[in-house]
Specification:
Distance between the termini: 37 Å
Helix content: 40-55%
Mean pLDDT: 94
Strand order of the largest sheet: 3-2-1-4-5-13
Order of helices and strands: HHHHEHEHHEHHEHEEHHHHHEEHEEEHEE
Amino acid sequence: MRFIDLIGKKRNGQELTKEEIHFFIEGYVKGDIPDYQVSAMLMAIIFKGMTKQEIFDLTEEMLNSGETIDLSEIEGYKVDKHSTGGVGDKTSLVLGPMVAACGAKFAKMSGRGLGHTGGTLDKLESIPGFNISLDRKEFIEQVKRIGISIIGQTGSLVPADKKLYALRDVTNTVDSIPLIASSIMSKKLASGSNTILLDVKFGDGAFMKNIEDATKLAKMMVEIGNYFGRDTRAEITSMEEPLGLAVGNNLEVKEVVDTLLGHGPEDLTNICLHSGSTMLLQAKLANSFEEAHRMLKEKLDDGTAYKVFLEFVKAQNGDISYIEDTSKFPLALYREKVYAPRSGYISKCNALTIGLAAMKLGGGRERKEDTIDMSSGIVLKHKVGEFVNKGDELATLYTERPKYEPIVKEILGAFEIVDEKVEKPRLILDTIEA
């Protein structure tokens, strides 16, 4: 078998067999097939697509390219959740303790942020002492004991995806639903949970810019998960504006604590209750969505979910005094308020602009090797649908970088204010099941 022949086959729109896809992935991981040939194959996939069976086979080969996690010694349903990335998306840190408080086992391997999207691990590491590098035994024992652990992905998990993604990134072949779906799902399947909930975002601040593409991706990933025997569901959610009010690592952790104490932003609270309800149904811990919603609300209202979050932070060596008193988190040296230039209703708060501004302030990475300033970011004071008077505070920026004046203008430019009343946007547009 010659890889050049497989490139030609895919270029002509033909279906690759399971054996051919195995030859492709195994050869690339071993270094037998060079980058330039794999780049040609990726471009052929971009233009010609893949059949469902090809996508299933590609996912399986990537999944089996390295180690997989066996969580079978943890009793009960192991639940996992993945977001396709957004601005201010700290749902895992609220949602995990909520579902764990209801008896689910939340065993999650997470990633870092790059560009305008924040990473769960970066937020956790803004808590002094927090350890994201538990070994497998510690990870499993913690989930058994308190119902939740979130750690970094191990280097031995799905090495084919790491190699392929790095090549896709530099050859402009990221934007392909078969490649995105197999990349995400190979990692989720390798992580060992029984159920997977996908939050597929669309809009200015998301990777998928429109609801049609987000829905296609979500349906494909649900089909992949169910093909491999996992209860997989997806929610289509809007990322036209940031989720919650805080964008930036320790700023978002403070908002997580507020939410777990019952006074967080309405949109963040609602999406966690909605997603959590789906997860409890997947874990067979509730008989209806309404029952699941009620269970989660009770654990939020009586402080149980907050206590689980404290246990989780303590178990991974985080200093819980920062959670018990969030004023201990360091504040950035420079703090600048952004004011409304006119009165009216906010019709837009562009998530991408806000996310990029937070990154430029030091709260994110432009390159993987960049160091994040955990105290930098933006806190919004108003969102779409709200009325503001001229001179009202729209947002506050936090940074250690002195030359922040141009970013003030960028933040101001993210907002549009109109005379006509604007309705609050819908956050969750659809739920996709098997």
